[in-house]
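Input.
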Amino acid sequence: MLGVGRASLREALKALEIMGMIETRLGEGTFVCGRSEFLSRPLLWAITGSSSDDTRQLVEARRCLEVEMAGWAAQRATPPELAEIDRYVEEMKSSTDAEFLEADLAFHLAVGKAAHNEIFMSALHLIRNLMRQWIGRILDVHGIPEMALEHHRAIYEAIKARDVSGARTAMRNHLDKMAEQLIATEEASSTVQPPDQRSKSTPHPVGS
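Output.
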């Protein structure tokens, strides 16, 4: 009808999702986003451009936002919000990679919502697609899903216990460990090596 091949259409939809104009929901379909996230494009191009400095800027942004939000969530989360955070932890326990990615991202957004700070939440939504790219890039690294699940559980337990300092520490630890793996993955992908050489040279820090 449109005179466009399926492959071209898929690429166009993928580009629109990256730009924040549409979102794909597992088992439901593709939907137009309620709010444009065009301002996230330069950051997204930065991380997909594999610059270590640009990646570190994203790491710093998430650390500034999410560590504080975890502490606020420990103070302000309502019982339904705690249940929502817990539900995403449970979903991560037995899931495919695609399901884990969605539950992981939803967990962080749920913690952000429980912080009850609309300005910080808007900033978190602005980098939502960047967070998705981050998670997706390291999810297939051996041991990362298990480590991430352990970290998410620790964050949830601290929030549930109303442990403000503990929630911040757990979130900071999670983001720092995940950042180590993201940066290692970026550095490895920028070096052209045979598969057997790559596996020997790519660092795999403990934690995510």
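Residues 1-36 form one domain.
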